[in-house]
Amino acid sequence: MATLARAQTVAVQQPRFRLRISRVLFLTIAAIFTAVALAPFILTVSGSFKTKSEILDWPPTIIPTVIQWQNYVEVWTNSHFFPQWIANSIFLAGFHLVAYIAICSAAGYAFARMNFPGASVIFIAILGSIMIPGQVLWVPKFLILNQIGLVDNLFGIALPNLADVFGVFFMTQFFKSLPKELEEAASIDGAGTFRTFRQIILPNAYPALAALAILQFQGSWNAFQWPLIVVRSPEHLTLPLGLASFQGLFGVNWNWVLAGAMFNAVPIILLVIFFQKYFIRSAASSAVKG
Amino acid sequence: MAVLAGGAVRRPSRFRYWRQWLTAYLFIAPWLIFLLIFVAGAIVLALYFSFTDYDLLSDPVFVGLKNYQKALQDESFLHAIRNVATYTAVVVPSQTFIGLVMAAILDRKIPFRRFFRIAWYLPCVASSVVTTLIFMWLFLPDGFINAALNFVGIGVRINWLGDEATALPSIMFMNIWATAATMMLIFLAAIQDVPGPIYEAANLDGAGPVRQFFQITLPLMRPAIFLVVLLGTIGCFQLYDQVKIATNGGPNEATLTVTYLIWRQGFRDLNMGYASAMGVILFAGIFVISLIQRRVLDVRPDY
């Protein structure tokens, strides 16, 4: 009965013919949004295949007259640190993911399942620190790195990023949702806390860990502000920093800049398309992070 | 149990408490250490350095409130605050409105919803460096923005980012483009949380979809609107990447922002103390604004 009643109201909600005009209107607005959102990317792809002279033509052409792959080869070889920047970015993302996931899942598990004095005080104090904008801590964080000799070093970028609240909060919420029977069964079998965590809890947390990993990869791969403060030497730059230094280096060679930008943008766009579900679901909850 | 067993069991059980606490602290220790150094320690240091003159080469000198006084009389700092205020006043309402329209469209049963959702979201996932470089190119005098304007009959060749009058509006456009869909996702989650029976009742009362949106959906989404406005404001106050990459605060300080000034004072001119003081002022500003917004937008939804 209930389903029948619901089916009827749904039918009332969407009268096929009355809504036609608003449907056309909605679709038109949607099409305009889509064009504005995608045009810069499409023009970038086309620009990355243009010759140095064609990219300066007025009026600009939308489709290049000759498709030339040369820009991609040149950006890779002519600026001889380019492969190094990609390697640095991959290393940073890899290190960050492993360390971040390990640290946050352990701490999140403690907050979700263990009683210890000070737990709520620590948790609340730290949630409050979310309000502090990152730029306020640029100077002191840089000075701390300077003391321990990690300025102009990839670990100087990576280590301060592990002091993050979002991941622990995220994992705490997730572990709270797991059934307590998991641990009870394990403790009957005589497994200690560490073994239970590693062999029972973590394998059950894969969906949450994957969502966290994908978001963190995006953050690390795209990061600009903090790496810019930490590293100077050309061989230590990450890909975004290297790309940003391009326009100063090559000025007018927009065909190279655009081809270089593709190396940063394409992996992340593919990731979003393949793992849409994770992004859409977690983006709203991670938005608090800003 | 404990009473029956008496004192004999008590001691091991207290020992077990200690062991449990120790285990718990071991689990949070790696995270807590990083946090104590790079957040708690850094906050204390930021406050301390804001009361000193420090150039990295000689020892910090305590100067009291001098840096704060200097900031409030610094023409560049005041100019940066004005820029950021203008920028926020335009960008936050725009991204909120566009995000809301996007979410309202995706909430209807239109074709290609999944395609639209992912297409609109792509500007949010590309890095700020990539989107800024792309727009620097599109905004060139010979670029596609001018070409598009010429195509619709507006014959201009503006140097968007190089002209004092258009540089800040260009960065506004860039960032609305890059952030609207993030707001859309928050709104979309909130729209789907509105209880279905409310719509069913409205249907029985004969309210059309437009009236339903304005009289049911929108009022119930007040917490989401608060969140979007707050996050948008915090984001705008921190405007940095686009300015650093595209304009360096220019031309003639037209795009100077507070965070860019913090970088310039701290890391170009090595006035670490002054940079810290400006950071503390920025934090105070964000804190006060978020309290005011909380008041004005009254977060609780009333059913």
Explain the overall architecture.
The complex is a heterodimer of chains A (290) and B (303). Helix content of chain A is 71%, strand content 0%. By secondary structure, chain A is mainly alpha-helical. Chain A folds into two domains: 31 residues; 209 residues, MetI-like fold, CATH 1.10.3720.10. The N terminus and C terminus of chain A are likely disordered. Chain B is mainly α and 303 residues long. Chain B has two domains: 49 residues; 230 residues, Orthogonal Bundle (MetI-like fold), CATH 1.10.3720. Chain B is 76% helix and 1% strand. Chain B contains 14 helices and two strands, in the order ααββαααααααααααα. In chain B, strands 1-2 form a two-stranded antiparallel ribbon. In chain B, α2 packs across α14 and α5 packs across α8. The longest helix of chain B has 44 residues. Chain B is globular. The two termini of chain B are 49 Å apart. Classes of the chains: A mainly alpha (290), B mainly alpha (303).
